[in-house]
Write a structure and sequence with these properties.
The complex is a heterodimer of chains A (about 110) and B (about 110).
Chain A (H helix, E strand, L loop, with lengths): L3 E4 L2 E4 L5 E7 L5 E7 L6 E8 L2 E4 L6 E3 L9 E3 L8 E8 L9 E2 L3 E5 L1
Parallel strand pairs in A: 2-11
Antiparallel strand pairs in A: 1-3, 3-8, 4-5, 4-9, 5-6, 7-8, 9-10, 9-11
Chain B lengths: L9 E5 L4 E6 L7 E7 L6 E7 L4 E3 L3 E6 L4 E6 L8 E9 L5 E4 L3 E6 L1
Classes of the chains: A mainly beta (about 110), B mainly beta (about 110).
């Protein structure tokens, strides 16, 4: 059963703590993405990776970090430097190259900072 | 997930009626457009896409219309069903380099049984 998994579904964190969100895909996609979704707003790109061991900042990368050591995995760390981390986080993947590559989304992780 | 629908424009339709959801996109150079459906607490799901060299594309119960002159995209859902209730948003893709996709804020569709 191919797809993208994110864990956990709900995550609570105290202020000042770092937390890592998991994203795994078995679609053999080269490209992976992290988005943040806030109420009433569109998805905003945090980081993306087009290939293993390479990643680029998106539009709102401050306070976040990522790694891409394996093709299947693209974990996102929300650091204590992120001023407003409470949000719904979505991971996606797609084929790389070409012009029109559909992004497949995971089920999301809702992070709440207490 | 649960709060995605807050503060969004809402379209309420009777079950069985047709729904039309509109989207204005920002970049006249965008060459690929996608409609996504997002149910509460879930990730977005692909519905239908269209390239800029087309003005209409049909799927199963859904049709996407593209008007490049006014940078407008619409999603038509025929015979709307309760399972269609969700937030729908469009996305535009500017090809070249990586997959730079810009997402709209979305419209909440409520189907009245």
């Amino acid at each position: 059963d191919g797809g993208i998994t994110q864990s956990p579904k709900y995550l609570f964190r105290k202020e000042g703590q770092n937390v890592t969100l998991s994203c795994e895909q078995n679609l053999n996609h080269d490209a992976m993405y992290w988005y943040r979704q806030d109420p009433g707003q569109g998805l905003r790109l945090i980081y993306y990776s087009q290939i293993v061991n390479d990643f680029q900042k998106g539009d709102i990368a401050e306070g976040y970090s990522v790694s891409r050591e394996k093709k299947e995995s693209f974990p996102l760390t929300v650091t204590s430097a992120q001023k407003n981390p409470t949000a719904f986080y979505l991971c996606a993947s797609s084929s790389a190259g070409g012009s029109y590559n559909e992004q497949f989304f995971g089920p999301g992780t809702r992070l709440t900072v207490l | 997930g649960e709060s995605v629908g807050l503060h969004l424009p809402t379209l309420s339709v009777q079950e069985g009626d047709n729904s039309i959801i509109n989207c204005a996109y920002s970049n006249s150079a965008s060459d690929y457009f996608i409609w996504y459906k997002q149910e509460s607490g879930k990730g977005p799901q692909f519905i239908i896409d269209i390239r800029s060299n087309m003005d209409k594309r049909q799927g199963q119960r859904v049709t996407v219309l593209l008007n490049k002159t006014v940078k407008h995209l619409s999603l038509q859902i025929a015979a709307t069903q309760p399972g269609d209730s969700a937030v729908y948003f469009c996305a535009e893709n500017l090809s070249g380099g990586y997959q730079k996709v810009t997402f709209g804020t979305g419209t909440k569709l409520q189907v009245i049984p």
